[in-house]
Each structure stands twice: as structure tokens, then as C-alpha cells.
Design goal:
It is a single chain. With 202 residues, the protein is α/β, with parallel strands linked by helices. It has helices at 8-19, 42-51, 120-131, 191-194; strands at 23-29, 32-37, 59-67, 81-89, 94-101, 109-111, 134-136, 165-170, 175-180.
């Protein structure tokens, strides 16, 4: 293991060489490298990043879903759903962020990378649960944070803040029951906005 991290500029060049045309975009910002790959070659690109000389990303340390539908105050024109992965090379002391967009907004599907990094298992289940992103090839893709009977995917930008179903204990039935939400949705405006002199501000 090396104690000296590779310079971000050098890592960017190394990743570009390793992935070739599979890398649609490589960005360097704030000392971090982000590579965007196409959905069709996502699994192949991840396999390359795990094994190629100069990459050697042995560990997947994070994977999450992203909903871009309201990104940039609604000016976003690309695909709605993406998966973002953070990789770590212990042997080369370097990190990389990988982003891949799902081709279909209505039914987002991407390949699972659990056969490359077993740590992706629960992360992919979380992205499925919260965003509805399907991971093709995942051996046990089911909800992990919400209840099995939960309706919808709560991290999607169009999911209602109050949800669809509420749960409560029914004393007569002596059990927990589920029923449609009875909370009336309302828009809450902070006092600092609705009151001109709130906090002595003028």
C-alpha cells in the first residue's frame, strides 16, 4: 500500500485511458474526479475500474440514487434518475466517483455490481427502496428501509411529503393498522419571510 495519493489530474488521465469510449465525461472539481459512464457499458466499466492497472478500486464505499427532476430549479433536461458510486483503492490510495444515468425515466433500470463488490448489496436495495431504481442481476432486490407494504418511493421529488398511507395502533382491534393519510397538505412559510419585522430585522 502506498501512503502518497495520486494527483487528481493524473487519476483523471488514468481513468480516461482505462475506460476509453466508455467514459462519457470526466470532471475534476475540488480535488475530486467524477466519471460519467453510459448505462449500456456501466457494468463493464466498473469491472475495468476494479481490476485495471492504475485503477485497482478494490472497495465500493457508497452507492446512492439521485432524482434530477428538479435539479437547477427545473432547468435540467437530461435523464431523471442516476446512480452515483464512490470507489476506493486502498492499494493506490485514491478515490473516484462514478455516475451513470438510467435510460428510462418511467422504469429506471441499471446493472447490479454486486458480483464485483458485494458491499453494493444493501446500497442497491436502498436505492431501489427510496428511488425505485431496479438493479438487474441483484439476487435479492427488495425494500430495506420502508415496510414491505409501502407504496411508492419516498426520495423521489414528486413523492408527497405526507406520504400515501399512515400507520396507527387501533385499540379496538388491538393491532397496528394502515389507512389513507388524513393529514391536509399545507405550505408552511417561515416567520422570517411572512413577518417583516421578525427578530427585529428591518
Amino acid at each position: 500500500m502506498t501512503d502518497i495519493a495520486i494527483a487528481p489530474e493524473a487519476l483523471k488521465d488514468t481513468v480516461a485511458t482505462a475506460l476509453g469510449t466508455h467514459a462519457r465525461q470526466i470532471e475534476l472539481a475540488l480535488g475530486e474526479v467524477t466519471v460519467t459512464v453510459g448505462a449500456t457499458h456501466y457494468h463493464e466499466a466498473m469491472r475495468t475500474l476494479q481490476s485495471a492497472a492504475g485503477c485497482k478500486f478494490e472497495q465500493l464505499i457508497d452507492l446512492c440514487g439521485v432524482d434530477y427532476s428538479t435539479y437547477g430549479d427545473g432547468r435540467w433536461e437530461g435523464a431523471r434518475f442516476a446512480v452515483v458510486v464512490h470507489l476506493l483503492s486502498v492499494s493506490l490510495n485514491q478515490r473516484l466517483r462514478v455516475r451513470v444515468f438510467c435510460a428510462d425515466d418511467e422504469f429506471p433500470v441499471i446493472a447490479s455490481v454486486t458480483d464485483i463488490w458485494s458491499a453494493a448489496n444493501w446500497f442497491e436495495r436502498e436505492a431501489f427502496d427510496l428511488y425505485g431504481i431496479m438493479f438487474e442481476g441483484h439476487a435479492d432486490l427488495r425494500r430495506i428501509l420502508t415496510d414491505y407494504g409501502f407504496i411508492g418511493h419516498p426520495f423521489r421529488k414528486d413523492f408527497p411529503l405526507s406520504g400515501h398511507v399512515e400507520m396507527r395502533y387501533d385499540a379496538e382491534r388491538q393491532r397496528v393498522i394502515y389507512e389513507p393519510v388524513t393529514i391536509e397538505p399545507r405550505e408552511v412559510t417561515p416567520r422570517v419571510i411572512r413577518e417583516d419585522n421578525y427578530g427585529g430585522l428591518h
